[in-house]
Specification:
alpha+beta; Outer membrane efflux proteins (OEP); 4-stranded antiparallel beta sheet; 9 helices
Amino acid sequence: MKHSIILTLLLFISFLNAQEKKETYTFTLEQAIEHALKNNYAIINAAKDIEAAKEKKWETTASGLPQINGNVSYLNNLDFTEQGVTGGGGFGGAPGTVSTITFGTKHSMDARATLSQLIFDGSYIVGLQSAKVYLQISQNAKEKTDVEVREMVINAYGNVLLSRENILILEKNKKSLEKTLFETSETFKNGLIEEENVEQLQITLNQINSTLSNATKRSDIALQMLKIALGIDISEEVILKDNLETIAKKSIDLSAFTGEFNVNENLDYKIGRNNEESKRLLLKLEKFRSLPTLAANLNYGANSFANQFDFLDQNQRWYNYSNLGVSLNIPIFSSFTFGARKQQAKIAYEQATTQLKQTEQNLILQHKSALNDYEFSIEQLSTSKSNLNLAERIENKQQIKFKEGLSSSFEFTEAQRQLYTSQQNYLQSMIDVITKKTALDKITNTK
């Protein structure tokens, strides 16, 4: 019995562990982008905005289609309204006196259906066009969100790889320095060198340990930021398959310097055109407000009257009625309200046109600047790689000289610092190529 209880508990614990097991994701950079374009929180909401815009478009369209409404009303005359009449004749009473008479019944009920149809309304025509523009705005906003999320994922993915490469280099430097420090300490114990050499190396090691600790923490934060960009819970495990150097090489595209910049493909410019078009439609709407509106409606119903509430009785008599109506509304004079609103809309449209021109000029300048930054980042990548090779050789030579007593600890430490700086510059140059290419692609709307 005791063994059965223990076995049951073990099985229950195993079940709980299985339930708590987190999902593991493995991504190349392209896979990460693809996943984010489906699961990023901002993209999900942007897609819902498009759905809402489609529903808004149909709402606007339906407002001009036939509408059918039903109505049932019941009236209970608690106290009848008395109608005054002059006495005499068929109403009784002395001539010249006032008598009263009551019309109606204690209970009455009316049921009717109304078919209404808008025949002409200028604002409805503009509304249909505006709904289409509204949908385009939502679609362009969604596309802009896609581009921004793509940029976010690339940068976040690169930052994770950068932080991990930095940790690897720091750990390598630490291991090499610890070995040198140990050998130097042993040499000092034998009285062959001064204590300052050991202390100088210890200072450098302390700095590496501090930097390594900070780099490890920043790496965890960078990974969590990537998870958020991907739309993944930060508690899930994410494995990255690409490495920084591979992505940097893929980001070098010399054809970017030969193509022409088409500002019409830029999403900010498209959104600017949407804004201009919406203002044009508002101006058109104000012009249409002075036009007549024409509508028609058809009513069909039945009413019934009784002094006792017996409308549910199948023998109760109902009186049918029907009518067709047409209404024409013609604006005549509004104390110049229409003119003032039209002028405001015209000014807003002119402002939107000016703003679009400004956006165009800014984008041309931004493209030139982004292209220049991208070109410089490629040059810096080549330069920093060459400098890293030189720094490694210099540090190696200084290390040999230091061990042989041919150079001071200061000279060796300076060579080390130069190497560490060159390592960081090379890592930064790789991430710069990636981010500058991404920024350029964002402006040209290249995927």
